Amino acid sequence: MAVTGETPIALTIAGSDSSGGAGIQADLKTFTALGVYGASVVTALTAQNTRGVSAIHAVPSAFVSQQIDAVATDLKVRAVKTGMLNGADVVRAVAESVRRHKLYPLVVDPVMVATSGDVLLQPDAVEAVRTELLPLAAVVTPNLPEAAHLLGRPLARDEAEMEAQALALLAMGPGAVLLKGGHGEGAEAVDILVQRGGAPLRLAMARIDTPNTHGTGCTLSAAIAARLALGDSLEAAVWEAKRFVHVALVAGVKQKIGCGAGPLDHLHRLRKAREH
Known about the structure:
Helix content is about 40%, strand content about 20%. By secondary structure, it is of the alpha/beta class.
């Protein structure tokens, strides 16, 4: 059920992508496309384009906390998502701020590696994500490599292994786990959603053959947060987010932005509305 009577607000706590395809920029585009007002807390600045990340400038954890304080003491935030957090000190600062300001529901995208392969989460931060952040999450949205890294296991090879890893992550404390299968193979892109007290849910859509996948994970987690801010149940939010990303991938197949892995088309709904 949609929220009425006030403007729904979602907050993204993530890194900045100077090329505009992922991170804070992708999140704010997604919030806007889905009709949600977006606020942002920047955790790191990246010198980044469609070919890779050339430099990272981390934002001090104290300033990350100050940004969250500024937003949370003024805006009525209805959902939050985290993306690139970079270091353990920032992870802990975000977790403490989430608890202090009761910033729920929280969507945790455990961003570890960019589409280009560049490392975005320092090794010392992985344990902090496991112990500090996951127990606060309404849902955590790892891809196959991220789930394997969080668990210290090999990459899941099939849906049965995906379900087993999702359940293992659920045991770490989040309310739900959406294990994304975009890095897998086959005609379908299959995600597995597991929740406390519920049966695993298989979410499948046709796999899109496209080089333009930059920011896909950021966009999905932002779309989930946006739908939660609008009042959707978690299951409905996940389905709607997956549909949004699927159509954005289809719409972005023919886009030519940059010389590497371009972004999906976050504005496909606005373009369609303008055409009509």
